[in-house]
Fold this sequence. Notes:
Radius of gyration: 31 Å
Mean pLDDT: 91
CATH topology: Porin
Low-confidence stretches: 1-34
CATH class: Mainly Beta
Number of domains: 1
Order of helices and strands: HEEEEHEEEEEEEEEEEEEE
Largest sheet: 18 strands, antiparallel
Shape: globular
CATH architecture: Beta Barrel
Amino acid sequence: MQHLKCATTVGILLTLSFAASSQTLAPAAESSASAPAATPAAPPAPPTALPTPAITGPLQGLPPAMFDAGPFGKIAVNGILDGEGMWTGHYVPGDNSTQAALSNGQVFIQKTDGWFQFYLQAGAYNISALGTPFLATDKTVSDLYGPIPVGFVKLQAAKNTSILIGALPTLIGAEYTFSFENMNVDRGLLWNQENAVNRGIQVNQTMGKFTASLSWNDGFYSNRYSWLTGSLTYVSGPHSLAFVGGGNAGQTTYQSYATPVQNNSSIYNVIYTYNKGSWIIQPYWQYTNVPTDPKIGVIKGASTNGAAILLSRAFKHGFSLPVRWEYIASSGSAADRSVNLMYGPGSAATSFTVTPTFQHGGFFARGDIAYVHASSVAPGYAFGQTGMEQAQSRAVAEFGFIFGNNIVGSEPKK
């Protein structure tokens, strides 16, 4: 009987133990089944191209190659190498109907973090524009902005405040200085009235959807620091609207290839941009004025008034089609000895350019087909060997490579 009691007791204890363990395990299993699976870590954001140098499109810059520069920290590097061939009808004396040149052989080095930043753009470049003679690349570099056309120190004074000191891209106009930055290969008629690179100081301030910039500089690369330029840009989604103005607060007699009589002008722009999906649409208006000042040789001043529309439509497989239309007119006449700003005092001109473009990775190829028609021209100031032709056609082919993080080193052998 004693053995039976012990066996019964053990059986009861085992039963109670099993029941208790069952009740303990069940909620744990239920909890395990109901717990959500661990969320996988979000993949890192893909690298993007830097905002400098600015590129309107449809060409796309690449994310930079990065390297450790010791005390300077991480440095970003990009580059471009491309050439162009050109045919021009009704070319002027000293020019030729066909030309070929290195269009860009440049490297861009920049530091983009911390309070002390910098940007250096070095190399060779060609700056061809509609309605003007071709200038060889070596002479372009020597007669314009040198082998380091753009280079500045950037002081990030606060989150939304920065100060730039050096050779700066101009705030004026809708088209940039270097071919790869623009929709078309050649710059347009309105661009011919604008400055391109300024040496000076610029303050930038972002306030919500507004960005304001103010610069004191040397205007048309004159090395005379008497220009003030400013811009105010409002951005909302794919839309932006910019008001830009600038001018020479004094007057200078100095002139060179980089510093024409327009260095004594004032310039104003209103620029609207829509950039979304496959479309870029950019109409803009421009007004310039060179005032009368006999002391610097301007017997009677003159102005220009112009408008342009630039648009680009992207298609599949890297193809796109930019188009540009422009009209610009100048005031004055030869009779009143007005200063000549175009093809003679009081002349006007219209241009149309189409630029089929292809880009795949770092390779691109594109071509301009352009036509300029001038009116009210002065004898000797228009096109052709006599300067009396009123129309000029031009075809340009440009192809090359854009470099960045597509530079891949060879794998070490195992």
